[in-house]
Amino acid sequence: MLRMAVSFFAGMDSADTNDNEFVVEFDTDPSRYRHWRVSYDGPVAHLEMCVDPDGGMKPGYELKLNSYDLGVDIELADVVRRMRFEHPEVRTVMVTSGTDNVFCAGANIHMLASSTHAWKVNFCKFTNETRCELEDADAYSRQVYLCGANGTCAGGGYELALACREIYLQDDGSSAVSLPEVPLLGVLPGTGGLTRLVDKRKIRRDRADVFSTTAEGIRGKKAVKWRLVDGIYPRSRFMEKLRARAATVAAETAEGLGDGERVGIKLGSLDPVMEGSTRTYRYVELSWDDEARTANLTIKGPSAEDVALLGEGAAALHRAGDQLWALRAFRELDDALLYLRFNLHAIGLCLVRAVGDAATILAHDEALWALRDGWLGNEVLRHMARVLRRFDLSSRSFFALGDAGTAFAGCLLELALASDRFYLLDDPDHPVQTGLSVFNEGTMPMTHGLSRVQAHLHGEPELLEALAGRRGLLDPEESDDAGLVTVLLDDIDWEDDIRVAIEERASLSPDALTGMEANLRFPGAENEHSKIFARLSAWQNWIFIRPNATGGQGALSLYGKPERPTFDWKRV
Amino acid sequence: MQSTTVDLNAKIPNNVGLADDPKLLRALEKWLPRYLEWWHDMGPTDFEDKPVFLRTAVSVSTDGWAHYDHVRMPDYRWGIFLNPREEESEIRCGDDAGKPAWHEIPGEHRNALRRIIVTQADTEPASVEQQRMLGHMAPSLYDLRNLFQVNVEEGRHLWAMVYLLHKYFGRDGRDEADELLERRSGDVDKPRILGAFNQPCDHWLSFFAFTMFTDRDGKYQLAALAQSGFDPLARTTEFMLTEEAHHLFVGETGLDRIIKRSAELEQIDPNGDIRNQGGIDFDLIQRTINYWFTYSLDLFGGEISSNAADFFAAGLKGRYREDRLDEHRALGQEYRLNVVDGGKLTERDVPLRNAMNEVLRDSYVKDCERALRKWNRTLEAAGSKTRLTLPSRRFHRHQGIYTDHFFNPEGQLITADQWEANKHRWVLTPADNDYLLSIMKPVYEPGKFANWIAAPTRGIDGQPLDFEYVKLHD
User: What is the per-residue pLDDT across A71-129, written as a single tens digit (0 to 9) for each?
Assistant: First the structure.
């Protein structure tokens, strides 16, 4: 199987694509999928990976053997999101391959080898976020993913399997699960490390060591014994067994959900308008200044009508569908963040503003919270939380600017708390308010499980204690006293201080800032998901930049070429 | 335990110091009963109590490797032999060419070597499984004996590979050796690793084509491994090549005898209708060649292969007769390959190391062309106007860069519809198999041959043609 797992790479030239000139858009829908087939049968959905070899996002590589690139993962992320909003009746999703003899060969090596460092990092982060979304669906939407590896499952393919709750492997004497990256490519396995292996599946670390250095992987009974998979099914009865398991899991998962019919809502395209250096959505606007390396990200809060609609209850929520403020605005924010990450490489600092009326936002939050027990209310909340986590994980400096007209309250206060600094204007002529709602109390947790207020006041337990259960509007001084504000500025100082802060920030080393911010944003204990991103940033991205992987003689550079890699044996 | 150990050493002819290797003895002790059980379940079971005039290798010396006697197949002495080497072995290709060969497994190549050995080993029992029922329609005792000779030697080749797994790969190797006995040719759940070894071999035309074309792939794979820097593998495969030559002989002369007989029947029949005379017509022979030649081409692996490059670079697998070439690094050179690009056939240069599978395939194709010329001389001598051809290597492929395209036997790109409309003319069909089965009735009388095949020119080990090569009525 080794032959299969790696041969897709062969035969392509490694022209370095200039990723900087390539614009990535994340909007897609089932009518445009090239790489996935989804079918539905009551509570069980079947997701088949059948990657179109000629459907690579960039030129210069073929996506053979169900290997994937960003385009494939964008579709997967879309599938997972739509499954929650459009198919709430689904309890179990079977993930299998529609391509012969291989489940998934992992990330396309040639795509990686020919991509810039920034592209690799962005790609790996996005694929990890997608896998976290899949786990989030299991945890919070009772949509359980079952992996049916009906063929070899290598590298990032196994990471996809690991993201599923259960993994079943075809027992045919050759299908194996494997993480061949260390021996074959000289990089970290999976799509970002080994956390899921040892933390989620709790595979013994010594066995994980053997597994991760055995390129051909492990199959059959041994894969079960080592807990790399949950079971093996014979080839002739594979789908039959998997369907039976899916039906059982679907029934178990549905327990206690009630019999009410669940009808999904459609997620339409956001259709942002691009004009020069401005990307405008209905509630969000992203604009940038290449020379100053600075972007402005503005989000408009909900209106009184939006709040009134929520007051009408679950049916109204359903009627509003994807036009609901909380859903639409956060989808737009998500898209803008991804646009910033993938397409605006030189923009180092993003200035964030939430505009609107603070009291209305707080009323909105309360009204939305009241609908949390309905499936759609729950999905909207979970989606907001995921977008905020994408924000936390974006490697740009974020300054929240609370100047005249802004309203960092409730769910939008989270943006200020997620930012690296929060500047707030204290000007009696232009009173600015912030505010606290239930959404600041841990309902929108960060990747590592803490609320942003907790993370913010990690070292100041008295302030944290004082905020516990506190809801309502805060004027600038109260906000500052509560420990929420970095710098409180009056109208005389505002302009100059902000200008200097921006210019100073934009002048610092982008690498140092990325590292510094990632270190400072997540105080407190780690969990599985935060470890995944931390390991990815610290280790994979380091390995990617090292000559042993990507130098002229590095393993990743030479993979599939006639020459063998030459390592610098010094341990660092 | 002790007594079994002694027995085992006496039972297994070897030149690998088995008696003094307790680790190996212990591994083989466990494996041997399972092997015999497999042979009983999946081998030519219905003939296992019949004495067969078999050649047994009892040592590597000139008179030792071909010892003839009537033997019941389960009593065959499956031995373990390494070809002797006079001089110190060297790594023959790749980055380390010229350095001393490895006598133990180098850690960095352990997994790759295990894969290579397991893939080769898996083909040996597979062919026995594919051929297990053919004894019931043998065209003569001479041919029946040849079938069984091939079978026991494929069994011995499995032993040779299992020896390497047991001796050099520790527990993993033992597990792999066990799995070799668990996979089954054509089984939906536990198929053999390579495609051609899961194709049914229903009748003697396919058997001869298999030994001609598929075993010939084996010859080239073994020859490439005989160039390996891992000395025990090189020497084991060198010895296997001496036996493989007999299998190729069976296939090549078997087809030649059928062709000769068909040409005779063509002359006999007033309308030149071979089938009317109960023979095998040339179109059907051509379809058989097309079918098995192309399935065998698949076995060489991808045309552009990073594995092939790695194996060559690491010195694990060389080219055919690498030791006779002048240059062994193969860097900075390219190989010109026909590829399909934008719906058209064009040429592309790929690094030579990545094209090593194709280089080996070239040697193989040349060898097959030689056999075709020989058969055509047979046709000419018999007065037939027919000439047989070898199809293009792009035709009817299931592995590699031509897989997803359709080609005619001349190698021209065609459409899927054209393929569908013509495939019954180009490759074996179920109707062909039905016809062949209808004419293949066993001929067990010494010296007699079925109507559809000519007698060979001479017998085995100087014995006459009417010698009782298999004693069916003991």
Answer: 999 999 999 999 999 999 999 999 999 998 899 999 999 898 889 888 988 999 999 99
- Domain membership of residue B132 (yes or no) is yes
Handedness of CA A372, A375, A380, A385 (dihedral sign): positive
Nearest CA in chain A to B109: A183
- Is residue B119 situated within a structural domain? yes
Closest CB from A3, A6, A10 relative to B304? A10
Put simply, the answer to whether B302 touches A6 (Cβ < 8 Å) is no
Q: How many Å lie between the alpha carbon of A362 and the closest alpha carbon of chain B?
A: 59
Provide the number of structural domains found in chain B: 1
Predicted pLDDT of residue A416: 98
| Residue B238, domain extent | 2-439
Partner-chain contact B111 A6, CB within 8 Å:
no
CATH number of A273-520: 3.90.226.10
pLDDT digits (tens, 9 = 90+) for B390-437: 999 999 999 999 998 999 999 999 999 999 999 999 999 999 999 999
Smallest Cα distance from B313 to chain A, Å? 7
How far B98 CA lies from chain A's nearest CA (Å)? 17
pLDDT one-digit tens code per residue, A481-509: 999 999 999 999 999 999 999 999 999 99
Look at residue B451 and tell me if it is in a domain: no
Cross-chain residue pair A7–B306, CB shorter than 8 Å? yes
**B452 belongs to a structural domain:** no
Per-domain residue ranges of chain A: 2-259, 273-520
Least CB-CB distance to B354: which of A173, A220, A562? A562
Cβ pair B190:A214 closer than 8 A: no
Using a CB-CB cut-off of 8 Å, the residues of chain B touching A2 are 111-112, 115, 307
Provide the percentage of residues in chain B whose pLDDT is more than 70: 98
CATH number, residue B101:
1.10.620.20
CATH number of A2-259: 3.90.226.10
**ipTM field:** 0.79
Q: Give the tens place of pLDDT for each residue, A201-241.
A: 999 999 999 999 999 899 999 999 999 999 999 999 999 99
Q: Indicate which of A1, A3, A561 best probes the interface with B, i.e. most B CBs within 10 Å of its own CB.
A: A3
Nearest chain B residue to A555 by CA: give it: B310
One fold for A2-259 and A273-520: yes
